[in-house]
Amino acid sequence: MKRYRIALIVVMASLILIFGFAYLSPGPYSDKVVVLMYHHLSPGEETSATISPETFTKHMEMLRDEGFNVIPIQALGKFLDGLEGVPPNAVVITFDDGYESVYEYGYPILKEYGYPATVFMIVSRIGRKEGEIPKLTWEQMLEMQESGISFHNHSYDGHYKVAVNQNGKLKPVLAGEIFDFTTNTKESREARQQRVYQDLKLAKEILEKGLEHPVEFFAAPYGVYDEVTIEAARQAGIRYIFNIKSGAIKKTTDPVHLNRVNAGSPNISAEDLKRSIFKAAR
Known about the structure:
Blueprint: H1 2-24, E1 32-38, E2 40-41, E3 50-51, H2 53-65, E4 69-70, H3 73-80, E5 90-97, H4 101-113, E6 117-121, H5 138-145, E7 149-153, E8 161-163, E9 170-172, E10 179-180, E11 185-186, H6 189-211, E12 217-219, H7 227-235, E13 240-242, E14 249-250, E15 261-262, H8 270-281
Parallel strand pairs: 1-5, 1-15, 2-3, 4-5, 5-6, 6-7, 12-13
Antiparallel strand pairs: 1-14, 8-9, 10-11
Helix pairs in contact: 2-4, 2-8, 6-7
């Protein structure tokens, strides 16, 4: 009897280890989409949001070799609307801020692998070259659009922070009421909502006129927003809003609370990214 109990304990412990490991281990997923977030590409510079073209190539190679299915952002919208399904291991590739490096380095790599992607544009900075990291031009955007790259809203001019109280606490300008130190007063929520609405509406109208495709996706600057921002975005015709929290998107996900997995830091190897994708989709 004693031997039987010992054998039973060993078997149970083995099962726990096997199934526990299987539960914790990443693996293929279905009926979910993982959205990747990149920013800037540079062969000679590394920051928290800048990676080399070589690293980006390795990421794309991993997506291909590991059987991920890169889909356009429009397919994500149809998935959330219940109009279409998505393939297993579905991934969307996005870039924030509209850097020219996406055209110079990212675009050729994406074309090589046949992958669509989306760039979220700060519309007031389109074509700017002086005093900042160069931004995409309209000509570059139109060329990229022909190869499956789409462009959506990252605000017209809302990618900076402002003081929101007399102590100088800072928040993204679209996510907080501005404090006026000259009058010692704070902007009302209603005034902020109108301000955010005007910003997003202007960005949407300019992009749609210049690119002739609907602009319904918005990546909130710094990933920060609240119900005031959401209501203003809805009024402006925005249907889908991205944050920067890690996680996968399901059919039941609220379309104004869409997660993304950070892929654009220099310490993220292809293997790291694979684990992050599967972890997000768990």
